[in-house]
Amino acid sequence: MTLAIFDLDNTLLAGDSDHAWGQFLIDQGLVDSAVVKVANETFYAQYQAGELDIDRYLRFSLSFLANKPLEELARLHRHFMTTVIKPMIAPGAQALLNQHRERGDTLMIITATNRFVTGPIAEYLNIPHLIACETEMANGGYTGLPTGIPSYQEGKVVRLKAWLDEHRESLEGAWFYSDSLNDLPLLRLVDHPVAVDPDATLAAEAQRQNWPIISLRD
Question: Residue 199: which CATH number?
Fold first, then answer.
């Protein structure tokens, strides 16, 4: 099996689904707009700089889910998918995914965004494997707390290696597509790293390493 691994935000999507979910909740009038907007923008800037405290961020981003009926959350997410995520899919994403499908590769998304937000996106893109930050559940609902090792920076490597062990697979010949400096640990691990619409730090590293640099937004 050859893995074709994709970051999600600003890679397959021409935007950030986690940041967009926070803005969606503001637009729907479901959270305190003044408080959430400042926090959302601050955390996003920290992520872009590679300085995000992932545990603190997850506790912020997951807090809305706590004690909400799952049916209500599912309805909200369907509206989010229709109005925000589907228009955000990068124009070249499906062609790249289909290229790997035609090769017989196994497709996976690995993302620092939580599974509540990203699970339906992976399903819509018909990508069967997803590694995401996990959300704790108890008594049939979300607690609003993270659980397990966050799939962020080196955590993506740890989570992926655990997945490989569980499925008795390897990274031989694997591809990884990402836009972010936060994904350098995993990009350096795979045989075929590809920078996609990269931030400045990743673009510079890709040039030094002679990694391909592509755009899915054209």
Answer: 3.40.50.1000
Full DSSP string of 46-76: HHHTT---HHHHHHHHHGGGTT--HHHHHHH
For the chain, what percent of residues have pLDDT higher than 70?
100
Tell me the pLDDT band of 150, cut-offs 50, 70 and 90.
Answer: very high
pTM above 0.90, yes or no: yes
Whole-angstrom Cα distance, residue 73 to residue 40? 20
Active site residue 165: no
Q: How far is CA 95 from the centre of its chain?
A: 19
The parent domain of residue 202 ranges over 3-214
Domain count, the chain: 1
Of 7, 16, 183, 197, the catalytic one is: 7
What span, in angstroms and rounded, lies between the C-alpha atoms of 105 and 97?
10
Compute, in degrees rounded to 10, the torsion defined by CA atoms 202, 204, 208, 212.
Answer: 60
Among residues 35, 21, 32, which one has the least CA distance to residue 79?
Answer: 21
The residue annotated as part of the active site, out of 9, 16, 18, 183, is 9
C-alpha–C-alpha distance, residues 11 and 199, integer Å: 11
Q: Can you tell me the distance from the alpha carbon of 37 to that of 196, in angstroms, rounded to the nearest whole number?
A: 27
Q: Give yes or no: 7 in active site.
A: yes
Q: What is the DSSP letter of 102?
A: H
